[in-house]
Amino acid sequence: MISPSNVGVDIGRTLKPHEYIGMVRRDEVLDAYLRERAAEAGATVINGLFLKMDKPEARSGGRYKIYYNHYEKGSVNGEKREMEVDAVIGADGANSRVAKSIGAGDYDYAIAFQERVKIPDSKMEYYKDLAEMYVGDDVSPDFYGWVFPKCDHVAVGTGTVTHKSEIKQFQAATRLRARDKIEGGKIIRVEAHPIPEHPRPRRVLDRVALVGDAAGYVTKCSGEGIYFAAKSGRMCAEAIVEGSENGTRMINEADLRTYLKKFDQTYWPTYKVLDILQKVFYRSNPAREAFVQMCADEYVQKMTFDSYLYKRVVPGNPLDDLKLAVNTIGSLVRANALKNEMSKVAL
Amino acid sequence: MALFSPSPPTTLFTLSSKAHLSTKTQLTLFLRKSQSLVLLRSAGDNGAGSVGSASVVEEKLEKKEEAQKSNLGLKEEEEQGLGANGVSLKGEASSSFKDPRWVKGNWDLKQFEKNGSTDWDAVIDAEARRRKWLQETPEASSNDEPVVFDSSIIPWWAWIKRYHLPEAELLNGRAAMIGFFMAYFVDSLTGVGLVDQMGNFFCKTLLFIAVSGVLLIRKNEDIETLKKLLDETTFYDKQWQATWQEDDSTGAKKNKT
Ligand SMILES: Cc1cc2nc3c(=O)[nH]c(=O)nc-3n(C[C@H](O)[C@H](O)[C@H](O)COP(=O)(O)OP(=O)(O)OC[C@H]3O[C@@H](n4cnc5c(N)ncnc54)[C@H](O)[C@@H]3O)c2cc1C
């Protein structure tokens, strides 16, 4: 993690040998793996593009009719098909059509812009098992800029909610900050994605449920969504299996709501804490300097990784907590004091 | 200062061509901000607009970019030549922060000596100047010369001396008051088991809020900023709860089916 004044801290030092932070290097590979595993477990996988659905009379127990374009392996021309189903789980990402079809409402979203850059092998070596996060008003007013390794190239990007129209400028700043490390690189692809900021107002309607980005489960601060997408998908599926008594009885909305309840109960504190952290620490450069200083602390790293790796908020040791509090106050006071000085300096 | 010539696209471009309009804006911004990276683009590409998550944002973005473009008074033709990928990154030396006392990513404290001891006031001044410089002209981070200066090496009394006791005392007094209040508050919650549930991380978060409160509320106008922050927080909570409120109004009926 690299602060506005380019102080860098390595946040992986406290990891134990068997612990590691996974980085998704090729989404296609993960997707294919999950699909195959589902098929092995007995699912019928259909390669299709969902278009729309007809809802049965509300709570009548009738079936949903879904319309989709069916694609044979390797072919680009879809064939229109229909199918009747008992329940629908919308896991179709941020622009979910399933969400639209149940009037789930919108969410604020951050735009994430990234460029896939092929960099010389000598430079790639540095990013072999490390990712960089840059913070600062220059790279994003409310998020961070990143360089993530992706197999044989890196993704350089940044995101923002509040200043979307200036994203290109932030991207330029991110590239500038990483300049020496990606020099000589060639952009091979440019991508822009929405990242949900909070859940949609409606996540379940009758026998339709939303999971992952379709529902809006990305944390603030870290922008983590893969884990929660997978977890919500699993919770939802489990709720259906349980509610239908292994497929012997029709489910209803209450069954799907047990998934929602479980998810919210388990993870809401995590989302809330990260939302607050983002509000406190991503707002200004002095706060970011303090944040990076805080991240250098071993105790913070241990706590952060425990909560990241095991997705649980672990109680810390009160003495360490107190020390942390004092240090954090110190960092914030210093950074703010320096900011006050900055306003007096003429360059 | 090497220049790379634009090379042909090597991969299918994932965005629809519409989105490329925006690159023009970027270039202008580059020039305006005189930042040190320049994009060179070759013409002619077209990726199929994928169903993927990009499409909606693109549309919205595009509108904004268009608005911005007209503000900047860009001409049609300018964007024609720029709508593609296959871009090379080029590094250009920008003017970096220079100070004889800034050596290998650190303040050389020997040069700050005055009467046999370090003149911390001067260090604070120097660092404030460096940060201001960086704020205006952000610099590339470097692995060869990482920044090692850490503001925590400046002793606490140097700050107190500089900011005169009254303000520091005010801050300390407020912090202590909030500390007591928090301890009391947290204690009263323990009975309910809330703290158990959320763990100490929750307490820490409260503490962060308190601390930032102390730091933020210096003047009355800061309260406005804080109010805005509070509104946003409430908004966030509302979004999470929305789906449950719906449940309350219709839930009774549903459970019967
Ligand atoms: C640049 C960027 C960086 C990120 N970095 C991280 C990170 O480091 N760590 C992390 O945890 N998260 C990260 N995230 C967030 C994470 O990628 C998402 O939260 C996660 O992928 C959500 O998974 P999902 O399955 O819900 O949605 P998606 O991954 O978007 O999958 C949706 C799928 O549905 C398909 N689909 C869409 N519409 C239809 C339709 N009509 N019919 C049929 N299929 C359809 C799509 O093709 C796609 O395969 C990042 C996101 C971005 C944009």
Automatic annotation (TrEMBL), chain A:
<keyword id="KW-0521">NADP</keyword>
<protein>
    <recommendedName>
        <fullName>Geranylgeranyl diphosphate reductase, chloroplastic</fullName>
        <ecNumber>1.3.1.83</ecNumber>
    </recommendedName>
</protein>
<keyword id="KW-0560">Oxidoreductase</keyword>
<dbReference type="InterPro" id="IPR050407">
    <property type="entry name" value="Geranylgeranyl_reductase"/>
</dbReference>
<feature type="domain" description="Digeranylgeranylglycerophospholipid reductase catalytic">
    <location>
        <begin position="108"/>
        <end position="170"/>
    </location>
</feature>
<dbReference type="InterPro" id="IPR010253">
    <property type="entry name" value="BchP_ChlP_pln/prok"/>
</dbReference>
<comment type="function">
    <text>Catalyzes the reduction of geranylgeranyl diphosphate to phytyl diphosphate, providing phytol for both tocopherol and chlorophyll synthesis.</text>
</comment>
<comment type="similarity">
    <text>Belongs to the geranylgeranyl reductase family. ChlP subfamily.</text>
</comment>
<dbReference type="GO" id="GO:0102067">
    <property type="term" value="F:geranylgeranyl diphosphate reductase activity"/>
</dbReference>
<dbReference type="InterPro" id="IPR011774">
    <property type="entry name" value="Geranylgeranyl_Rdtase_pln/cyn"/>
</dbReference>
<dbReference type="GO" id="GO:0015995">
    <property type="term" value="P:chlorophyll biosynthetic process"/>
</dbReference>
<dbReference type="InterPro" id="IPR036188">
    <property type="entry name" value="FAD/NAD-bd_sf"/>
</dbReference>
<dbReference type="GO" id="GO:0045550">
    <property type="term" value="F:geranylgeranyl reductase activity"/>
</dbReference>
<dbReference type="Pfam" id="PF22578">
    <property type="entry name" value="GGR_cat"/>
</dbReference>
<comment type="pathway">
    <text>Cofactor biosynthesis; tocopherol biosynthesis.</text>
</comment>
<comment type="pathway">
    <text>Porphyrin-containing compound metabolism; chlorophyll biosynthesis.</text>
</comment>
<dbReference type="GO" id="GO:0009535">
    <property type="term" value="C:chloroplast thylakoid membrane"/>
</dbReference>
<keyword id="KW-0602">Photosynthesis</keyword>
<dbReference type="GO" id="GO:0015979">
    <property type="term" value="P:photosynthesis"/>
</dbReference>
<dbReference type="InterPro" id="IPR054715">
    <property type="entry name" value="GGR_cat"/>
</dbReference>
<keyword id="KW-0149">Chlorophyll biosynthesis</keyword>
TrEMBL record, chain B:
<protein>
    <recommendedName>
        <fullName>Lil3 protein</fullName>
    </recommendedName>
</protein>
<keyword id="KW-0472">Membrane</keyword>
<keyword id="KW-1133">Transmembrane helix</keyword>
<keyword id="KW-0812">Transmembrane</keyword>
<dbReference type="GO" id="GO:0016020">
    <property type="term" value="C:membrane"/>
</dbReference>
